[in-house]
Amino acid sequence: MTLTELNQRFALSNHVQFKEIADGITIAEVSNKHANSNITLQGAHIATWQPRGQEPVIWLSPYAKFAPGKSIRGGVPICWPWFGPNATDAKLPGHGYARTVPWEVLETKALPDDTTFLRFGLVESDATLAQWPHTSPVQLDVTVGKTLRVALVTVNMSKDALVLGEALHTYFAISDVAKMKIRGLEGCEYLDKVGEPARRTQQGSIEIESEVDRVYINTEADCIIEDAGLKRAIRIAKAGSRSTVVWNPWTEKANKMGDFGENGFRGMVCVESANAFENLVTVKPGETHRMVVEYSVNAI
Q1: Active site (annotated) includes residue 29
Q2: What pLDDT, in 10s, does the model give residues 61-71?
Q3: Residue 12 sits in which domain range?
Q4: pLDDT score of 114
Q5: pLDDT < 50: residue spans in the chain
Q6: Alpha-carbon distance 34 to 203, whole Å?
Q7: Considering only CA atoms, which of 88, 93, 90 is closest in space to residue 128?
Q8: What pLDDT does 204 receive?
Q9: Which of the residues 15, 45, 169, 289 is marked catalytic?
Q10: Residues in contact with 77: Cβ distance below 8 Å, sequence separation at least 6, in sequence order
Q11: Active site residue 272
Q12: Cis link prior to 93 (omega < 30° from 0)?
């Protein structure tokens, strides 16, 4: 669908316009009385969300690259249909292919409370089917308002049960990593992926002073990012998710990535709602699996 056709069919006055921001990269520019948000059609990738009167809540690197087939540093990348390396073929892309392939717009509408709803569907191709040879349509529902509600929906239309790994790899904007802590995972077991892999139990709130890459398992708890610098708390409330990933690459790893910028890692933290490792989801034929997350902000 061309840009003109997209706007003719799905643009909404005072809510949604479609624009091309780079060669081959189109965004849905969402604006209503509650918030602004940009979503790329590649990967159905929520790049930004900023409630009115607030600092940005979703972090996007100023050095993020927007190019066909390339992942975007920041925002809300979709990890699907596996999390981390593929279990049987190490040559396949880490975290799956969903975040780097085209999605199509299926629906847009303005809701009575002036929030904005958008629905995207992953476009299957020979390349995606070669990696995931199953009939399992996946959609992303996004509601932009005072809160940001995101639902990743997988339908198993094949004859066999599917084992699914997934995550909303959300980057949150913070004042400084030294001025924030994460609550909600106290007492949870986690798989520590920094250094020699280990299984540990979280003691108290999470404070970050070095590289952190942890998969908290068997938890459906809300998480709260308390940011003393911005005097706000970001709540991550989820359903259909049994894992939570906390990630910050710290200095050395961020510098190697090249798209963080100097000390960019200090202004972000990832708190990802997921189903990973021993919390993989089995979706039976004919069933639908929904992972739903809602982000909200309050002053502290």
Answers
A1: no
A2: 999 999 999 99
A3: 3-299
A4: 97
A5: none
A6: 37
A7: 93
A8: 98
A9: 169
A10: 43, 45, 71, 95, 99, 168, 169
A11: yes
A12: no
